[in-house]
Predict the structure.
Amino acid sequence: MTLRSIEVDGADLGGERGVAIRDLLEENDFRLISAPGPHALRLAMREGRIVFALGSAEFHLSLGPFRQVMKDYAQIRTAHAEGVKRLAPAQIEAIDMARRGIHNEGARLLQERLEGKATMNLDTARRLFTLICAMQK
């Protein structure tokens, strides 16, 4: 475990986001290429960029490549929440599978964008993608 604390600027950290932070603090596989951990992570948005601040290391990722997958993820989350109220279990399961697929797509994009700076497993990337989405609300 290399993230020892996580702070997220401007995000509603209730519900799913709070769970993502708790899960990340319990178990994560995030490693900076340039420095051993553990690290305190601060996530922020500045001028259309995602900022990962880890002590003296700071990475800025353009939000552009994430916009479509974030939009798709928000839409499928809304469809899932509405579907739970009125759809048959098989239909809800289909929406949930699509939601997980989009979530994985966002996580893999995050892994790609941090290549050469940091490495992380898919579960860690998924939870960080959840937090990045929370900052957009």
Summary: The chain has a mean pLDDT of 91. The CA atoms of residues 41 and 131 lie 12 Å apart. The chain has four helices and six strands. The chain has one domain: 3-135.
